[in-house]
Amino acid sequence: MLRSQIQLTEAQHRALKRWADRLGISFAEAVRRCVADRLAREEASANQADRVREAQAVVGKYGSGRPDVAERHDDYLMDAFDA
């Protein structure tokens, strides 16, 4: 592990200390968990944004040629699997 020095507001320090005490973990572990949670959410958000971009890139690319596909997609899907 690497040692880091950070500065927190008094309110942040108090809240984090109370949370750590409630969980029975060290203050340092509480900081690590907060950082890990935030980084995981950022990564998930980035991955979701990538998936949305990829999906938007194919929207309309593969037309069915059927004007009623929005209303009858289930019927067409069943037909495709029955074939």
Briefly, what is this?
The protein has 83 residues and is mainly α. The protein has three helices and no strands. 72% of the residues lie in helices and 0% in strands.
Helix and strand content put the structural class at mainly alpha
Range of strand content: under 5%
Span of the ends, CA to CA: 59 Å
Helical content (DSSP H or I, runs of 4+): over 70%
The Cα radius of gyration reads 25 Å
Task: Summarize the biggest pleated sheet.
Answer: none
- Enumerate how many helices there are, as a single number: 3
Tell me the number of strands. 0
Topology pattern, helix = H, strand = E: HHH
Uncertain regions: pLDDT < 50 for 5+ in a row? none
Mean pLDDT: 90
What is the 3D shape?
elongated
